[in-house]
Structure formats: structure tokens, C-alpha cells
Here is the input.
Amino acid sequence: MTSITPPCPECATATEPIVVEGEEVFRCPAPGCGRRTYGTGDLEADDDLPPYTEVDGDGATFLYRGNGELDVEATAEHTSQHGPDDEDQDDEQPTGRAGVTGWEPQVQDVRVKDLAHVPTGAWVWIYGDPEGWRFFTSAEYDADRGDTTVTITYSDGEVVKEEPWPQARLVRSGPDAVPTAPRPGPAGLVKW
Here is the structure.
């Protein structure tokens, strides 16, 4: 007997059943998606799925909302709180994530709407944007407020409205170095 799984609410790919805290839910296997769902068609119910973490091959920890969306803000907070002890740092060594031995900025796949959770700005490459990597200083999106687009302000002053769902690449780094990596992994920053 074959079981029918619901399509992914994001990309319509057939999902795979998984067990989360004793409950059968569904996960999208499509590269770059990973959306989780109860499969009921009620997207608000999917928000009640328990959050989870994943560790990549380099040991970086990523925190996800229960529905499979990367929680950019929680991941950044987790990373900053789990760096080396202050007393172990050399006075000349940078603090925060840059102070972690062997740490280098990573390229992450996110949705455009997740840029609103990056309060300090970062490098972004929105799929389909011919300009490639651009540093944004702010992004505003609040679906509860009725926003239907993400308002992004780039470092050159340009303000652009983008759809919230497209994929984007994100590198948490300051405006003084441009990422060179086209896919997830080490960012390969080049100083201006």
C-alpha cells in the first residue's frame, strides 16, 4: 500500500513523513526548502510545530522555526552567546563570532522575508538579481501589519520592494568586505 503525502505549502514538492516529538508530520525534501507541515492545509497550525536545531559539517548551529524556516535572529543570538569565554580572548582578537577560532562568515539560504530579522544589515544576493551581492542596511516586513512585500534599503540608499518568499543568500558581515561565494559554505570575503 502506498501512502499519499501532502505537497509542500511553499514549493508544491511531494513531502516526506517524519516524526517530531512523537507526531507524524511532513518535510519537503527539495534542496533549499526543508519546509515542515502537518499536512492539513492550515498554515497557521504549522506555526505550532516545535522549533529545532541543525549543525552543519563545519559545526555551525542553525535554529529553525517549527515549520522549517531558518530563524535568522535566534541563530545569530545563539552564535553570539556560545562563543569563547571573554577571559580566554586575546586583547587584539575580535569579539563575538569573529572571535571564535576557525570561524569564518558562512553563506546561508534564507527567504527574503527573513532579512527583516537582521537588525544590523548584511550581504544578500536575492535569486534572480543580476547585481549579485549587495549590502543592505535594513529590511522591513510584518505580515501581521498587512505587509505584502519586504522593503529593503541598500547601502547605496536604493530602496527596493521584494516579494517575501523568494530564496536569497545571506552573509552576516560588515559592509567593508564583499562575499565571493555563490552557494552555502564559507563566504570568501574580499576587502574593499
Q: What stands out?
A: Helices lie at 43-46, 72-81. The chain has two helices and 14 strands.
